[in-house]
Fold this sequence. Notes:
The chain is of the alpha/beta class and 351 residues long. The strands form 2 sheets. Strands 6, 7, 8, 9, 10, 11 and 12 form a 7-stranded mixed β-sheet that branches. The protein has a 5-stranded parallel β-sheet with strand order 2-1-3-4-5, with helices on both faces. It has helices at 7-10, 18-25, 29-36, 44-56, 86-98, 117-124, 142-153, 178-193, 210-226, 242-255, 269-278, 294-301, 313-329; strands at residues 74-81, 105-112, 132-136, 157-161, 172-174, 198-204, 230-232, 236-237, 261-264, 286-290, 307-311, 340-343.
Amino acid sequence: MEPAESGRERGRMGRARLTDIAREAGVSSATVDRVLNDRPGVRARTRDAVRTAAARLGYIDGAESPAQPIVPVCRLEMVLPAGTNSFMRELARHIEQLSALHPEARVTIHSIEGFDPDSLAAKLAEFGAPDQGVAVVAIDHPTVREAMRALALRGSAVITLVSDIHHVPRAGYVGIDNRSAGRLAGYLVGRLLGPGHHRVALFAGSLSYRGHEEREMGFRHVLAEDFPTIGILDSTEVRDDDSRAHAAAMAMFEAHPDVDAIYNIGAGNRGIARALEETGRARRVIFVGHDLTEHTKGFLLNRTMDVVIDQNPRVQAREALAQLVRSVKGEPWSALAVRVQAIFRENIPEL
């Protein structure tokens, strides 16, 4: 429920609204209301982000926003996978927008082939300095792990983003609990299918992404524990590409015309949705996937998709930038846990 309109907001009709500030800062409208009315219960970093966003939108005077301390300039390198992945494009857009909240940092976004460990390692080899922070969406591969170790030795603060990698000297991880997200997907598929024997098809971008591997593990564990009559087909890797996903889904329907549900662990939802529509299976086959975008929103509205498990890209962008700045400064890690949300046709939030 939206907070009651404050006197401050009523006096500024025609300018920015609480919802505009909330969207800009990546928080709820209730949090904005608490900050602007000086109520307790909001962390200092979040309070500063809200007041900075409010100043940028003209809701409060710039003088009312917190003074920016004079600090050495740092460089933040954000390494994201290229391709048709709509979530990654949204993440890049939010990083670009929210970088204005960190005038002490120069932010650069690098798009590279996400499934080529050598290309990623070569990109990481370009960085390395004490005033530099690197956030990377990385596949879990020996070449990449060695490149991250070497990067840390050269003095850069390194964080993993969206998908984690263990046993590397990273400052921390910004993203969701992917195993929990997979368990949620398994529970939803099991409940939506109901009693009886069913078959589920799995698609993944690449299980070289630890996040995708963890989602599959969580999904399989829940079905084995709670829905043992549901059979799972071997997972198919589509490299988060819509064309590959479409071709793989069409081949799967040819080989398994009786499939009852699809769980797409990564991107490629547009290709799978097109295959469902072209074969007349839309609305008959349960379809659960990840990440709310304009495309998946449309698939929910026309009932091609049943559930989207969302990881807020704006929050991840905000936290990645904030944590990199903190890490470069040598300050302690204090990342906010990114929540997982199940989105149905009836509860689609504003993008």
